[in-house]
Specification:
The chain has 322 residues and is an alpha/beta fold. It folds into two domains: 212 residues, Rossmann fold, CATH 3.40.50; 94 residues, 3-Layer(aba) Sandwich (Rossmann fold). The protein has 13 helices and ten strands. The strands form two sheets. A six-stranded mixed β-sheet has the order 1-2-10-7-8-9, with helices on both faces. It has a four-stranded parallel β-sheet with strand order 5-4-3-6, sandwiched between helices. Helix 8 links the parallel strand 7 and strand 8. The protein is globular and about 55 Å long. The relative contact order is 0.17.
């Protein structure tokens, strides 16, 4: 999907807009998980999530081919929907974003703040995605998929930062939505010739990727019930599954209760706010027992609504929005 020169070019492009995010070792988190644990803080980007890297590279490639006359349209639960207008709006490219009913109010506001026109459609991400694809064809818009080679190359820059900052990692845990993040980590691991195992993480209420990984074929689910909206996907991307199937050691399921507990742990041990998907890697490392290993968990984002975060720190687990 990309070579080392292309990855380095993407790194230069991303770093022209934002600095590298920190990879930090927190003693209290190490104590809780029982190993040498490092956190890759993708919550420290301009949009509060790793997706912004992909948006920067995607829009740069799009501009190289000529700005689309009608603009862009995409579907999201929030972080992808911030990354595209973040990169496109400064160039005068209009962006429409479809979100499902009950989507995060904070993420909706952030997308609008970056310049997107936010529209509500459907009961979940996949229904919003199908409608966005239909509108793109009907109105001559460019539909921005959540999994695209330019997006993967952009988000892969965090993996290169991580592997260059922390040597000899045994395991990296990565949450999976549509798969750009974990695919970027797998591809960079392979480019660098490392032996690090990459473990994907999904919600047990939205486990289409885990089922597909286990079956060796695409398995869709009827629902995606989790408050970790960044992982709430029912229909895996075949291109992503081809990479995950070959390059991931396994895909771990975590419950919403485990995710909420990981949000609390990250806050108490590191004083960082994690959204549900952002805490999922920590939840999986805790479930599997990281004792005696050098482990990294990717805190993919910190964009959680205040009411949900307040409920979590008070000991509750939020109900899924959709």
């Amino acid at each position: 999907m990309f070579n080392r020169n292309q990855l380095e070019a993407a790194m230069d492009l991303v770093h022209a807009t934002m600095p590298p995010t920190p990879a930090l070792r927190w003693p209290l988190l190490c104590d809780a998980l029982g190993g040498d644990v490092w956190v890759k803080h993708e919550n420290h980007t301009p949009t509060g999530a790793f997706k912004v890297r992909g948006g920067i590279v995607y829009i740069n490639e799009l501009l190289g081919a000529g700005a689309p006359a009608g603009g862009l349209i995409t579907a999201t639960r929030g972080n992808h929907g911030q990354s595209i207008p973040f990169a496109a709006t400064p160039h005068g490219i209009p962006v429409r974003v479809l979100v499902p009913e009950g989507n995060s109010a904070g993420k909706n506001a952030a997308m609008a703040g970056w310049g997107a026109s936010v529209e509500i459609f459907g009961r979940d991400f996949d229904e919003a995605r199908i409608e966005a694809e239909r509108l793109a064809a009907e109105e001559d818009l460019v539909f921005v998929k959540s999994f695209h080679e330019h997006l993967v190359r952009g988000v892969a820059t965090y993996a290169l930062e991580l592997f260059e900052a922390v040597a000899d990692l045994d395991t990296v845990y990565v949450p999976i939505g549509m798969g750009s993040g974990i695919c970027g980590v797998i591809l960079v691991r392979d480019l660098l010739g490392l032996d690090t195992e990459i473990v994907g993480v999904v919600s047990d209420g939205a486990d289409a990727v885990a089922r597909s990984f286990e079956a060796g074929d695409i398995v869709e689910t009827a629902s995606a019930n989790t408050f970790a909206d960044g992982m709430a996907c029912r229909v895996p991307a075949p291109d992503a599954m081809a990479i995950i199937g070959k390059g991931a050691a396994r895909v771990v399921r975590v419950s919403d209760d485990e995710i909420a507990d990981a949000v609390r742990l990250l806050f108490s041990a590191t004083h960082n706010v994690a959204e549900g998907a952002g805490a999922a890697a920590c939840a999986a490392a805790r479930q599997e027992d990281a004792s005696g290993k050098r482990t990294a968990v990717v805190l993919t984002g910190g964009n959680i609504d205040r009411d949900w975060f307040a409920a979590i720190v008070s000991g509750q687990t939020p109900a899924p929005a959709a």
